[in-house]
User: Fold these one by one.
Assistant:
Number 1:
Amino acid sequence: MSTTEIDNLDREILRLLQKDALLTNKEISFTTRKSIATIHERIRRLKEQGYIERSVAILNRKKINRNLIAFSQVLLNDHTSTTLAKFEEDVVKFPEVMECFQMTGTFDFILRIATSDMDAYHHFYRHKLATLANITSIQSFFVLSETKSDTAYPI
Amino acid sequence: MSTTEIDNLDREILRLLQKDALLTNKEISFTTRKSIATIHERIRRLKEQGYIERSVAILNRKKINRNLIAFSQVLLNDHTSTTLAKFEEDVVKFPEVMECFQMTGTFDFILRIATSDMDAYHHFYRHKLATLANITSIQSFFVLSETKSDTAYPI
DNA sequence: ACTGAAAGATAGTAGGC
DNA sequence: GCCTACTATCTTTCAGT
């Protein structure tokens, strides 16, 4: 981690690019009232220093048949680093697993699972997730509706 | 929802752009062995038909001081549509709330909260979230480590 | 649907303030 | 750190298959 700090111009650029990664330098230079070359150099630095990790297209999941989102809370029966690491190694390989976080509290991991429907989730649960070693329990919760889903941090 | 289906070329383009939204048409045309104009037209259609919702820059949250991610499970004390809608309306306004889903099961909503640290979460909890109307309980779980966090659906 | 090529716009670089 | 000006590269359009 470098000691470099970002200023208000950097923050404004990050704010804009979090909303739309395809903005041209020209558009950003117009909004921020700086020259195109300045914007170009700032964005280069923000990437180089790791503030911007990557730019991605966000798809409409219903159009590509991911109608069901589940959160699955997993509890393991032992917490040696070997067991934890093995679970993580195996679970991230499943294409249904969009996210996996190790958590504090009454369970060990929370997974975000995307499937086409309940049948597909059931199949994932029975034939993939529940087959992994050292699982004590899995509790599943399903998304009824998406009120807010944002990738942009307020800056 | 239109009746239009996508073919293998569309799927390959979506796969590529989910990983890197800044790929040039030229690069995609090289990978897919199609002409630049073909790629250009395909991407235009994928956006127009709503497969691609938007393109965004993904930031390194630790560089911008969002070190703590919490999942907060919220239970309300009544489930009239008015109460549900009011909660949703209010909760999405908090900048700490990255995501809000209404859920099946033993609680009503799950929130993903991003703050700088536990003090900031505590402040959010006490002075923002817990002040909303009709809340019965809030249970908070904190991310210890991020094993996988992907925005790209396998296609 | 796809292609190649032209025209217009943008990214990226260099030199100066 | 920011600017103008220049060149390389890319996007976008279109006539042709």
Number 2:
Amino acid sequence: MAKRVFSGIQPTGTLHIGNYLGAIRNWVDLQRGHDCIYCVVDYHAITIDVDPKELRAASRSMALDLLACGVDPERSILFVQADVPQHTELSWILGCVTSYGDLARMTQFKDKSEKQEFVSAGLFTYPILQAADILIYKALGVPVGEDQVQHLELSRRIARRFNARFGELFPEPEPIVTKGARIMSLADPASKMSKSAGPTHYVGVMEAESSIRKKVRSAVTDVGLTPGEAMSAGVANLFLILEIACETLGDAATVSELKAEFADGRLLYSQLKDTTFERLMGVLRPIQERRARIAAAGDVDDILADGARRASAIASQTMREVRDKVGLGAAA
RNA sequence: AAGCCCGUAGCUCAAUUGGCAGAGCGUCCGACUCCAAAUCGGAAGGCUGGGGGUUCGAGCCCUCCCGGGCUUGCCA
């Protein structure tokens, strides 16, 4: 049996090229040779303030984005987290083998809680739910970015502690270190591309072409470098986007040509931007078209229902084992 | 549950005794630039958390509600 992989993404905001080039592209590739379970994590989304009128639509929309990007429901399981409520049941139990001190050490919690005026307990216990997401499917691999490594290590600790206390059940999930595509904000190349920094900082995968052109054109570069000098962060970021886009398109020549021009000090940044924009659209356009086709077909809800059904089958089996090992409930 | 403090533009905060709701940052447009940034010029942006009241006049005073923070409790 192929190695099982789990990963999730929050349904807040739209998918941006940092998400796609950094993570989702790998999700798609992992489908070859792995047994993949992909999840739109709406339980996680409500750890911060979210509009209930928008959440469900956002979850569906994110699922649609993922399908458009190439997540294949024939090969993988795609579902919305709250459609498999066993995630939260396991989360409670795992919370009881998680140390308070471990949670208090999570840097992402510290960062996020500083920015919120209302800090929910859910934000604090978030990594436990994340561990439940992974362990309930006994996933062996989890594709993660650098920012999630700490959380995955906690998941491993939780699995280990559960096994030690209640008997061997969960395999320790291994990180799948993906090609280090860390796309930076175009407006501020010192910080990672994110939706929270505002619309000028990210390029949406489904964004209108004219808008994307504008954003790529306004990318921060530098005042001009002398030949032989290292690239500035902004230029390096454009090259990174260009490189991944060209790789996807099977175009090896363009990047090396532009890099040679850069080394000679005769690269015009306007040209780099135009080329990057063009190649990026070469990648995004088919995704956008596919999204339109899938949306028109109108079977996303069916796909998600089927995904939830298949995920539930695994999750409820694991929960039977968990309840048995822990001794929960009156019925055996 | 009680006490105290807080809520003003997207964000951080001003606003004299109760007297025209403002600034910085961000956003948008323009100039400059190979493209951008920075800089300069311009613009948009508000039910002052909500309801009621006092007053000629309320961001400011009274009252209730909602939300947040801190403190001391109560119940499980």
